[in-house]
Amino acid sequence: MTALSPIGAAYDDGLLKITLLSDESGFRVEGTVDVTSRSGLAAALSAAQQGADIIHVDLSGMEFIDMEGLRTIARAARDLGDGRLLVLERVPSHVRALLRATNWDTLPGLRIEKGES
Amino acid sequence: MAFVASTSVPDRSRFAHQGCLYGSEQEFLAMAVPFIEAGLARGEPVLAATTSANLDLLHSALGDQARRLDYAETAYFGRRPAQRVAAFDRYLKTHLTSPGHVRVIAEPIWIGHSEREIRAWKQMEARLNLIFADTRIWMICPYDTRVLREDILADAGRTHPSCAVGADTVPSASYTDPAEFSGGLDDGPLPRPPADAAALTFTGDMALLRNFVADAAGAHGLTADDTALFVVAAVEAASYVRQYAQAAVTIWDRPGAVLCDISQPAGGLADPRPGWRPPDLERPRPDDGLWLARQVCERVETRSAGGSCSIRLHVPTRRALT
User: Fold this and answer.
1) Residue A115 CB burial class (10 angstroms; 0-12, 13-18, ≥19)
2) Which fold has domain B198-316?
3) Average pLDDT over residues B98-111
4) pLDDT of B79 strictly over 50
5) Are the beta carbons of A30 and A13 closer than 8 angstroms?
6) Which helix (H) or strand (E) holds B209?
7) Which residues have CB under 8 Å from B253's CB, separation 6+?
8) What is the pLDDT of residue B163?
9) pLDDT band at residue B320 under the 50/70/90 scheme
10) In which band, very low, low, confident or very high, does the pLDDT at B134 lie, cut at 50, 70 and 90?
11) Does residue A117 sit within a domain?
């Protein structure tokens, strides 16, 4: 399995912070995904797409995400293609409700783990 | 006026939306059983969202085939019109690779609703013709003539281009343009927010807006999760209105709900009823954020008149959930 590029995945603009998971299987997202910080999330997802088949994203520290942020996540899952998965872990219940509201949680490339943060 | 009944299957590249007035168990089954059997025989997904009494009838009448029928108790298949649209979209999205039509029997619930809710459900029935126009959903909406009011039965003809009678299709003579029908049922102007409502002028500072909404929602007793969703709804509504100019944001409460008003005194909404179409992953639309707001709020009202516009969000406070 290929490790994520630390250069591509790490991000911190004061609003949104993205750090690699210690086992390099994915990354952790903390803070706010809005119009100003969305590009940071998109870059991390894009870097992760170059790596392992299964990408783990820990959302336990996500405080806010808007419609276009949700689209960024859904498109990343869609772009993974056959047999690959974007796995969202420790998803706060408000983020879970938002993902469900878009119906994009039905995408085959997206898995939302049951346990809450 | 003479109608030509036909038994042909609708074009699968277009939404087919039919009403069905039934006055007995036999009449319900005469429509539902052939519709379901034909779908199952073609390998198409078939969903029946109807009353528990009708579900029992179907499960008995269909025998072993009933095992392949998706079903829902209709009262819980989208509690409000916006969630109902989402439920249909969800069923469609989970059957992207299936052949033919996606068949749905969808019986709206009318008994016990307030007059405002009845208008909202009628408007949804009309709006479905626009929302799902380009989909391969074939939907039949049963209306029970034994229990429903005359106006509800009459409007079934106005909101469905055709009606199912047994296995036949009959064009609906009273079918009305959906926008025209919906517009005729619009509620009046929104009451003004109270003078002591918390107020903010939003000029584009997202962090300021998020904090303002979160503080006000918390002060009115919303839980942390409900507050987080309320903030998203308010941000999406304010971003939508803000396309035109700065917006006035006010928050107040009344028994059972916290309300947030986002208004713009110098600009109308391009689309008078934004946020009803399920978001498309490939093609973002300006009102996608309002779809999200409609899903997470109890109710979203939009008004656009005389060069000004308002969006009003309602979030329940003390509703008990199971």
Assistant:
1) exposed
2) Heat Shock Protein 90 (3.30.565)
3) 96
4) yes
5) no
6) helix B206-219
7) B220, B221, B259, B317
8) 97
9) confident
10) very high
11) no
Q: Show Cβ contacts of residue A82 under 8 Å, excluding neighbours closer than 6 positions.
A: none
Residues sharing a CB contact under 8 Å with residue A58, sequence separation 6 or more, in sequence order:
A21, A26, A27, A28, A29, A89, A90
How near does any CA of chain B get to the CA of A103, in Å?
Answer: 6
Fold agreement (B16-184, B198-316): no
Task: Say if CB B157 and CB B12 are below 8 A apart.
Answer: no
Q: Please report the ipTM that was assigned to this predicted complex.
A: 0.93
Q: What is the CATH number of the domain that holds A70?
A: 3.30.750.24
Residue B233 has pLDDT above 80, yes or no: yes
Please say if the pLDDT value at position A29 is more than 60: yes
DSSP letter at A4? Answer: P
DSSP B256-311: TEEEEEEEETT---SSSSTT-SPPPSSS--TTHHHHHHHHHSSEEEEEEETTEEEE
Q: Does residue A82 sit within a domain?
A: yes
Would you say residue B88 has pLDDT above 70?
A: yes
Q: What is the residue extent of each domain of chain B?
A: 16-184, 198-316
Q: What pTM was computed for the model?
A: 0.94
Over residues A91-108, the mean pLDDT reads 97
Report the C-alpha gap between B51 and B73 in whole angstroms: 6
The predicted pLDDT at position A117 comes to 57
Write down the CATH superfamily of domain B16-184: P-loop containing nucleotide triphosphate hydrolases (3.40.50.300)
| Best to test chain A binding among B292, B297, B300, B315 (most A CBs inside 10 Å) | B292
Say yes or no to pLDDT of A5 above 70. no
Can you give the residue range of the structural domain that contains A26?
A: 6-112
Q: How far is B267 from chain A (nearest CA, A)?
A: 23
**Domains in chain A: how many in total?**
1
Contact state of A98 with B279 under an 8 Å Cβ cutoff: no
Instruction: For strands B70-73 and B46-50, give the pairing.
Output: parallel
Residue A62 burial (CB count, 10 A): 26
At B176, the amino acid letter reads: T
Chain A residues with beta carbon closer than 8 angstroms to that of B288: 67, 71
Q: Which pLDDT score, from 0 to 100, does residue B221 have?
A: 93
